């Protein structure tokens, strides 16, 4: 332990002047290796840095397993890493690790298959896994929500685009309609002018009329909407609003008061009812109303 | 020792080699949640390990830990030491007289992270993949041997499961050892007949954990002994923090200096009186 402390002190003195690079990246590591004056950094500590190659190799011989140990005990595979990987480039680094693992698995598989050793876990083999089921459910949930969010975002984008296009189309349509309307009015005016000019000749101006009517007919029959009455000014839209509720009320009133509605809700003194005495007592008009009691008595006696 | 030869020590081709590796996994007190979870993950990855209770860090680490390893009848040890609740140091040691290594651990991602979606059998034997630059230098060779013995599950261990469904990746990038653990997954209906075609469709899903080891020193003995190797590029995190603070401390002094400099400059070069200064006086 004493040797340890001494070398540490020396190391302290030497490396004080070096520049450090610290990537405060929440993803990855805080790199402790010097960056810029790397030449300087290497030179100085290298002198003090212990590198006992013989000792290392000796220890290696001490601990390593005998030479003829079968590979099945070790299960190690070596992978050749071609290029120098930059530790800061996350994607490249992870890709390199992935390829290393993939290559290693391929090699291992090739070695294991002739030995007849089962390689992969069959789907019906249930045993304790390193992560619990609840944890895997959480992961699944998270993946699903992520997928859903992405899909929703895509849909929203599409809807926005579609809306834009629809709006454009709509604008075009209204413009066209306005134009057509204007044209129609223009043609009517022209026709009137023509009539005026020709002195309102009552004869059949076939060409003008026919052309006029033909255009109008053509116009009207262009869009035949099945559910709409021809005289319907709103174009079938009025029916849509509050259809069921109004219907129910109407039906109820019809059944209760007969088709036509309650008598009480109507006006009483109208033109029709002024001289209508159907409901009145004919011939009993001369009696004095004030003497109602005597009349009732007389009637009762008689 | 980690291995036992057969009764008769002949120079035969196949002495009975039994991998009786047992790893003791402990940590120091005042370890933070992240590193504790990492330790627990490592425990679940190695079925041949024994987890022990926390170790006091004030006493001389070497002696107590060696005794503990002997007591539990283990052949190696993984000791997670957390300093200042910020830095994690990992010791890998072979007992009783083997070499030991001290690493600084960075970039820790535990298995509980939801982005690491893979899963594998608990106790199945991993396939250890090393990059070829482990064979270039003696210290890497030694590290490779230690890692292989500690992280490789013994073949006929009681808790070992029969299939091979995950792979460890140990790779040297920028003088650090990077660790990854991948699940080998093959599309569902192919598992019975894994042939060439199945192999092509094989994908790897990361299970975790992830960490990066920066070797600091290699010692000849277990938790002590002569230093065999020192990493010339290693700077302790304490020094890094100290340098950062010093840089920040300089900021105020520089500001004051800049102010006085400006004042002096202004006094030495007086401005011409401005003609239009009084124009807008109300």
Automatic annotation (TrEMBL), chain B:
<feature type="compositionally biased region" description="Acidic residues">
    <location>
        <begin position="272"/>
        <end position="282"/>
    </location>
</feature>
<dbReference type="GO" id="GO:0006364">
    <property type="term" value="P:rRNA processing"/>
</dbReference>
<dbReference type="GO" id="GO:0000027">
    <property type="term" value="P:ribosomal large subunit assembly"/>
</dbReference>
<keyword id="KW-0690">Ribosome biogenesis</keyword>
<feature type="compositionally biased region" description="Basic residues">
    <location>
        <begin position="246"/>
        <end position="265"/>
    </location>
</feature>
<dbReference type="GO" id="GO:0005730">
    <property type="term" value="C:nucleolus"/>
</dbReference>
<comment type="similarity">
    <text>Belongs to the BRX1 family.</text>
</comment>
<dbReference type="InterPro" id="IPR026532">
    <property type="entry name" value="BRX1"/>
</dbReference>
<dbReference type="GO" id="GO:0019843">
    <property type="term" value="F:rRNA binding"/>
</dbReference>
<keyword id="KW-0539">Nucleus</keyword>
<feature type="region of interest" description="Disordered">
    <location>
        <begin position="246"/>
        <end position="282"/>
    </location>
</feature>
<dbReference type="InterPro" id="IPR007109">
    <property type="entry name" value="Brix"/>
</dbReference>
<protein>
    <submittedName>
        <fullName>Ribosome biogenesis protein BRX1</fullName>
    </submittedName>
</protein>
<feature type="domain" description="Brix">
    <location>
        <begin position="21"/>
        <end position="224"/>
    </location>
</feature>
<dbReference type="Pfam" id="PF04427">
    <property type="entry name" value="Brix"/>
</dbReference>
């Amino acid at each position: 332990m004493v040797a340890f402390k001494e070398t540490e002190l020396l190391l302290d003195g030497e490396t004080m002047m070096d520049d450090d690079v610290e990537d405060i990246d929440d993803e990855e590591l805080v790199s402790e290796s010097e960056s810029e004056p790397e030449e300087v950094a290497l030179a100085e500590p290298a002198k003090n840095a212990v590198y006992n190659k013989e000792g290392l190799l000796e220890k290696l011989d001490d601990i390593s397993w005998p030479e003829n140990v079968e590979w099945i005990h070790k299960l190690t595979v070596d992978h050749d890493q071609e290029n120098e990987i930059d530790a800061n480039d996350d994607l490249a680094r992870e890709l390199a690790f992935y390829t290393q693992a993939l290559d290693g698995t391929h090699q291992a598989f090739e070695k294991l298959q002739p030995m007849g050793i089962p390689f992969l876990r069959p789907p019906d083999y249930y045993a304790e896994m390193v992560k619990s089921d609840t944890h895997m459910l959480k992961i699944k949930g998270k993946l699903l929500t992520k997928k859903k969010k992405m899909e929703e975002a895509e849909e929203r984008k599409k809807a926005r685009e579609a809306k834009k296009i629809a709006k454009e189309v709509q604008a075009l349509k209204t413009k066209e309609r306005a134009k057509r309307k204007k044209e129609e009015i223009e043609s009517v005016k022209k026709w009137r002018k023509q009539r005026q000019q020709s002195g309102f000749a009552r004869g059949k101006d076939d060409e003008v009329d026919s052309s006029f009517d033909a255009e109008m007919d053509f116009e009207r029959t262009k869009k035949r909407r099945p559910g709409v009455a021809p005289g319907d000014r709103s174009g079938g839209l009025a029916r849509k609003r509050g259809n069921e509720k109004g219907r129910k009320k109407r039906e109820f009133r019809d059944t209760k008061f007969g088709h036509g509605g309650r008598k009480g809700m109507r006006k009483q003194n109208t033109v029709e009812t002024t001289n209508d005495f159907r409901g009145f007592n004919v011939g009993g008009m001369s009696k004095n109303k004030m003497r109602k009691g005597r009349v009732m008595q007389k009637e009762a006696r008689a | 020792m980690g291995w036992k030869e057969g009764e008769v020590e002949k120079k035969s081709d196949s002495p009975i080699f039994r991998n009786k590796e047992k790893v003791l996994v402990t940590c120091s007190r005042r370890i933070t949640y992240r590193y504790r979870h990492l330790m627990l993950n490592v425990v679940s990855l190695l079925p041949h390990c024994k987890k022990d209770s926390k170790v006091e860090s004030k006493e001389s680490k070497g002696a107590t830990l060696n005794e503990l390893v002997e007591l539990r009848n283990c052949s190696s040890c993984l000791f997670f030491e957390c300093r200042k609740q910020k830095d994690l140091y990992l010791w890998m040691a072979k007992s009783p007289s083997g070499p030991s290594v001290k690493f600084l651990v960075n970039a820790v991602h535990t298995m509980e992270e939801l982005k690491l979606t893979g899963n594998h059998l608990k106790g199945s034997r991993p396939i250890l993949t090393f990059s070829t630059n482990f064979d270039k230098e003696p210290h890497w060779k030694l590290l490779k041997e230690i890692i292989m013995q500690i992280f490789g599950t013994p073949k006929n261990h009681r808790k070992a499961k029969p299939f091979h469904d995950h792979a460890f990746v140990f790779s040297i990038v920028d003088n650090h050892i990077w660790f990854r653990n991948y699940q080998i997954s093959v599309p569902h209906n192919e598992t019975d007949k894994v042939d060439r075609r199945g192999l092509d469709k094989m994908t790897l899903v990361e299970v975790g954990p992830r960490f990066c080891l920066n070797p600091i020193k290699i010692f000849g003995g277990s938790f002590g002994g002569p230093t065999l190797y020192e990493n010339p590029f290693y700077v302790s995190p304490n020094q890094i923090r100290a340098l950062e603070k010093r840089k920040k401390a300089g900021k105020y002094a520089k500001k004051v200096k800049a102010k006085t400099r400006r004042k002096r400059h202004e006094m030495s070069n007086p401005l011409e009186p401005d003609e239009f200064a009084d124009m807008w006086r109300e």
